[in-house]
Design a protein that fits this description.
globular, alpha/beta, four-stranded antiparallel β-sheet
Length: about 210
């Protein structure tokens, strides 16, 4: 479904080089690593947000960075779902309005069972700015899953959650992948989540290695 071939990238210094990664439908992959190792940058490259300085990214056998801009926008809109570390919710909207915006753009219906399971049904009509960090995170996850993406890219999806809620969210993401033949690529520092993934890699010494 998605394959990265010999990806390299740097800013003021080399982050990583010759990274290769492949993910299939229903597969769940995690990338762990220290802060500053380039985890989020790699996720942005894989999710069609940042053109790699070297290497290629293929989605359904198409090199996404050689597609026309309209084709790439459609992939981001309908096929990819990105859970950002800092949410990027609309601060003047309610939780429901944030989710409705995603549903409208993706031409999907709101899944009220998902909203209840994420435990945001009681705050759904509140302004985003009145919610806790954990509640905002769950709204962000609901917004992404409402799109019914084929690949979920998650940057520290449980970073603002306690252990119990983190496990619940990971269970929801895992079940979504199984039920929708979707894939999950997560970058995280939380190695306690490793059991939810089929494969875990570590970004270390500018390389992507199998995590032990």
């Amino acid at each position: 479904m998605l394959e990265a071939v010999n990806i390299s990238h740097s800013f003021d210094y080399l982050l990583f080089e010759n990274v290769n990664l492949k993910i299939s439908p229903k597969e769940k992959i995690a990338v762990v690593g220290k802060s500053g190792s380039g985890k989020s940058t790699l996720l942005h490259i894989l999710s069609a947000l940042l053109h790699p300085q070297k290497g290629e990214v293929f989605y359904n056998n198409q090199n996404i960075y050689k597609l026309k801009e309209k084709e790439l926008i459609n992939i981001r809109r309908f096929e990819f779902g990105i859970i950002f570390q800092f949410h990027y919710l609309f601060n003047t909207f309610t939780a429901l309005e944030n989710i409705q915006a995603a549903a409208l753009l993706a031409q999907k219906e709101i899944d009220w069972d998902l909203i209840k399971r994420l435990d945001i049904d009681k705050v759904i009509n509140q302004n985003i700015q009145t919610l806790s960090g954990g509640q905002q995170q769950r709204v962000s996850i609901a917004r992404v899953l409402t799109k019914k993406p084929k690949i979920i890219f998650a940057d520290e999806p449980t970073g603002n959650l306690d252990r119990s809620n983190a496990n619940e969210v990971m269970q929801i993401l895992s079940e979504y992948c199984e039920e929708n033949s979707a894939s999950l690529i997560t970058v995280t520092h939380d190695t306690e989540l490793a059991g939810y993934f089929d494969k875990v890699y570590e970004l270390k010494n500018k390389r992507l290695e199998v995590w032990k």
